Amino acid sequence: MYLKLPVAYFLVGRLLSGLSGDFNAILAGCFAYVADISDRKSRTFRVAVLEACLGLAGILASIIGGQWRRAQGYINPFWLVLATNLASALYASLVVRESVLPDPSAKLLTTRHHKAVWRLYSTGGSGIDGDRSFCRCKLWLYSLCFFVVVTVHSGSRELYVLYELSPPLCWGSALIGYGSAAQNLAYLTSLLGLRIMQLCLEDSWVALVSLASNIIGLLVFSVADSTQLMFTGYGLCFLFMAVTPVLRSKLSKLVDPSEQGSLFASVACVETLCYLVGSGIFNSLYPATLYFMRGFTFLFAAILLLIPAGIIGYSSFFN
After folding, report:
1. What are phi and psi of 99, to 5 degrees?
2. Where are the domains positioned within the chain?
3. pLDDT averages per 10-residue partition of the chain, 319 residues
4. N or C end of the chain, less CB within 10 A?
5. Would you say domain 20-95+125-318 falls under CATH 1.20.1250.20?
6. What is the pLDDT of residue 131?
7. CA triplet 64, 45, 39: central angle to 5 degrees?
C-alpha cells in the first residue's frame, strides 16, 4: 500500500498465505490443542469457547476497524493486524506449553502426516475398541454434517449484505453494521445457550436445537421484506453457532489422543473446501432465483440443514 502497487500484488500475499495454511491452519492447531488438554466431558464447551472468541473478535474488528479505516485509511489498521499476529506468535511460542512431546526423529517434509489422515478415515482410527467400521461410518457422517453446516454458514453469510442492500429493505451502512454485529453476537449467545443446555441435554440434542434455531431464522430471512423481520431472523438464529463445536467435539471423541492433529488438520481442509463450495453455490444461486423468489437462497439453505439434522438425530437414536 505504501508503494501503491497494482491490486494484483495482493494475490502474491494471498498465495503465500494459502501455501502456509492461512487462517484455517491456525484454527486446526488451536482446536487440536484444546482437544489435547481437555477431558471428554468438558471438551464440547471448551471448543465452543474457542469458537466464541471468533465472534468476539469479529465484533471488535467491525467496531474498531470500520471507524479507524474511515478516519485514517487502510494502512494503520493493517499495522495493527500485523502487530496482533506477531504478538500471538510470540505468545504461542514462549508461553503456551506443548501438549504433545516432540519427536526428535520427526521430519518436516514427509508424507507420514498425509498417510495418517488417510488411515484415520479409511480404518476409523484407533480411539475406540469397538467396531472399526461403525467408527469409520460415524467419522464420515459427522464430517458430512460439518461440511453441510459450514457450507451453509459461509455461503449464506456472503449474501446478507446483498440481500439487505436490495429493495424492499434498502439498508444503509448503519443498519448493515447493526446486522453484522447481531450476527457476530450469536457466537456469544450460542456459547451461553450451549452451556445452559448441557445441564439437561446431551450434545446431540444441543446440536439439533442449534440447527432448529438456524433453520427457523433462515426461513424468516427467506420471506423478510422489512427491517423488523430481518432482525427477528437474526434473533431467532441466536443459537446457530452451537452445532459446530458439538460436531468438532464428537469427531474428536472418536479418535485417539495421538490422532487429534490429523483429525483437526482434515477438518480444517474440509472447512476450506466449505468456503469455496458455499461461495460458488450461493453466489450463483442468488442472482439466478431473484426473478421468482428473492429469498429462495435462504430457503435452500434451510432445506440443506435438514441433512445434518437427520444424521445427528438418527445417530442419537441409534446410540
Report:
1. -95, -15
2. 20-95+125-318
3. 78 84 84 88 91 84 75 84 92 88 70 79 67 82 96 93 92 86 90 94 95 98 95 96 95 87 90 93 95 95 97 85
4. C
5. yes
6. 65
7. 130
Question: Is the CB of residue 68 less than 8 Å from the CB of residue 77?
Answer: yes
Enter the C-alpha cell of residue 39. Answer: 477431558
What is the distance between the alpha carbons of residues 225 and 298, in angstroms, rounded to a whole number?
13
Cα separation values, 273 from 144, 162, 203, 270, 285, Å = 12, 23, 25, 5, 18
Cell numbers 422489512 label which residue?
226
CA distance 305 to 222: 14
Give Rg (Cα) of the chain. 21
Between CA 312 and CA 310 the distance in angstroms is 6
**C-alpha cell read off for 266:** 482434515
d(CA 302, CA 253): 28
Q: Return the DSSP state at 42.
A: T
Quote the DSSP letter at residue 106: -
Residue tagged 495482493 (cell numbers): 10
Q: Looking at residue 108, what is its pLDDT?
A: 66
Contact between 232 and 216 (Cβ < 8 Å): no
Distance of CA 105 to the CA centre of its chain: 34
pLDDT of residue 141: 94
